[in-house]
Structures are given as structure tokens and as C-alpha cells.
Amino acid sequence: MRNLLFLTWPLIFLGLAVNAEPVWQVQSDLNNDGNAESFTLYEMPEHQINLRITENGETLLEVEDFVWQGGLFGQIPELEVAANGSVQVISMNEGCCRHRWSQTVTIAYRKGAYRVAGITYIWRDTLDLEDWGICDVNLLNGRGTLTKGDLPARAIRAKGYAPKVLDWSVSSDLPDACKLE
Fold it and tell me: Is residue 120 part of a domain?
């Protein structure tokens, strides 16, 4: 029996990994109507990750190709609910190559729409240990901080207002204030 379990365990594991839709799901009442919305990431062909927001079974919003996903461990996006109730979509490359990074897109409900309220981008070079940094920007007020290596963090300002979630995609740029020079 033990040998049978030993031989079938990898097949069970592979089956769970293949059928891992949705990637992740969380709930939070961002629009403050008393009903929690469900935020779901799900995978489409070619590793495309879409975001769906539903409430009481009704789709409120669906965004194609919202965040990046690779094909290896450490490259699978996640959803979390922040202490203030905002939803955080975290994509990353922590499993491959020299340039490791994570990006947290924070979603809030403001001015009648779901918006990208903040971006946190963290990077590091696995060969050059002095090449690392953090850019954290609140897009609702434009204020943030940028830290590069061992230099002190400096205040930065992002132009514009928090874009609607519908206007965000995997190809959206970091704010100019976060650009890695």
C-alpha cells in the first residue's frame, strides 16, 4: 500500500497543479454597499491572467491580461486583502534568473470606479547584491518613496490620478517616478 501511495502521489500533485483554476480568490466590500465583492484571478491560454470582480454572482468587471505569470515556481500571481480592506494583486519572478522582482497592484474603489490605488515594485539582482530597490507609490495622492540599494529612501511624486482597473494590464508601465535609471 505504501508503494502505491508513493507512486500515485506525483500524479495527484500534477492533477491538482493542472486544474488550479481559479488561481486565487478573495472577498472584500470595496464599494461599501454591504455586499462583499469577489476578486478572482484565472488563467487563460498562454499564461494570460485575467481579473474578474463579481458581486452576488453578477460580473461587475472583467479585465484581460491583468498581471504577469511565468511557468515556474515563484512566478504565480497571488491575491491578498490588505488591513484596510483594499485588494492586492501580487505578481512576481522569484523563481528564475538573475533579475528577481515582485509587483503589488493595490485596488480600491474611488470616484465610482475600481482603481489602481497603489503600486509597489521591489527588485533585486541575485549576482550584484548592491543592485536592489523598492518603489512604493500611492496613486490616489501621487506620493511615494523610492529606495535604491543602500541609499536613503527619497520622496517621489507620480503624475496623474489612479487609473481605472479596466485601464490596467500586464503591459502598463510603472509611474515615471519609479523608473530604474
Answer: yes
